């Protein structure tokens, strides 16, 4: 793990750290809450605090049907995708792995495409199930390829992942083209919360539950990050934990793609930034990853909704522009610390 | 062509020492590929030929012409780029060159406005774009490739992320644009082999011929450059100058092919890898034409098969993307990256 760290881990006195961390986390939560409130008042149809206080039924309607679902889904998706990225990085033993970069998200889209073509009338739930199975297969394939790699360098992991994702995406595009579903496909590949309304986002509560599972099992994922032998020596079942991680990551990716589309780089950027500031202890980092992920997507979503008001820019585009910049900074900053 | 101008000790073999196969001679290989390429083109031009010939033939000629041009541009730029960067896996496309082109197009439209860009004379606009592209890519890639001891993986990853960044920023600017301007711009990206503009093809041919001449004249120098930066400097090659000239050539070639038909990420990797496998002795005088001929055969042949057998229209780039991605993973797995 130490080889893979992007920035030197902060060394702070552990006692002082635990004392202040609960407070800091509460503060982080408060910031997210504030952003959430701001997010609820951004939008085309009029919604103002005075109107809500006066009990204007139209304003309350907008709030219930559109704004609250949207804000909740942004928070859930942001937190879950970031946590999935952290788990993926532990499973792949690379700081540069992310479900949107190793083929998981692409496989999920292929799954949705297959079910859309074969059973056009399928329920959202069935689509999600098929997408999850595909996502799991794609992720497993990636991990299998990684095991076969002759030289395992931290940087080769994302390279293989990006290419595998590209190959799977090419298959998807080919069939989408054949069945005239290219436009539908684009909407899965670009994350966008503009379509979120009451009744159309509830699946995302599943990823909320999965994130909690991730929290609970955080220590186990730390251990598999240290390798198969180490895990077995501690008396834990390596394969079972890998399977658990695979299921969590794949389900989160599939549900998010089905509900709002892919959010690139999120699972990569957030865990890395968090580990820069809070170190590599997963149990301590994971709540921060969730909080930071939710806040980051909230900010990007607010930007996307205001920058070209009244039009809306999908959050996926904002995140990929901002995210690739941050990623570049991490890569090249790493080069400097290595003395090149 | 059969005589090798470089002493045997200097030529770099594509294979590991233990795996030498009895190979075709270079002249024979070129002749066979040449004949196949011509045959494929002839079939493409004449298959199911009926109706108004005066209408069909020029259209097909433009299509074939643009495919041949793309094959030349991609084959040349990939092999030269790989030689100068001393690797078998980076290509201009993978390094984000064509995403850069799209970004420049977008910025131009964003800054000048779609009407201005559209009303510019095609050759003038094209020249301006190529100039900007060359300038910017030189800055960027010189910076990435100067110095030594750089990790190839890091460079590759940085290149890919730059590509993502360029695409992300382009997408963002496109969304910020006036929707009507966006429509004008969109037409520029989705040009396939089916909608190539005849005048632009002529300009593109002129540009490719112009940069191909110095590239071809430097072929011996490239054989030395292929030995690596240090060795070639020791052998008296001005590596910095050669690398700069090559990056300019690559920028022009990539700009031309992207402007003409849109980005094809893995095509170069595919033909270059295949060419290295086929060519008995690694000399650029053989590898370059082999890569180009392979490009012509696979583009024209692939389009022929897709159009006539599968009844598709512009899915060729998707097929290339698929096969190219597999080849790339294979190369990574084989550990040909050092």
UniProtKB/TrEMBL annotation, chain B:
Task: Return the GO cellular component terms, semicolon-separated.
Answer: plasma membrane
SUPFAM superfamilies (UniProt xref): ABC transporter involved in vitamin B12 uptake, BtuC
Give membrane topology per the record.
Answer: Multi-pass membrane protein
Q: Which domain of life is it from?
A: Bacteria
Q: Name one GO molecular function term.
A: transmembrane transporter activity
Query: From its record, what is one biological process in GO terms?
Result: siderophore-iron import into cell
- Which keywords appear in this protein's UniProt record, sorted alphabetically? Cell membrane, Membrane, Transmembrane, Transmembrane helix, Transport
Name the family: Belongs to the binding-protein-dependent transport system permease family. FecCD subfamily.
User: What is the name of the protein in this document?
Assistant: Enterobactin ABC transporter permease
What are the leading ranks of the lineage? Answer: Bacteria, Bacillati, Actinomycetota, Actinomycetes, Micrococcales
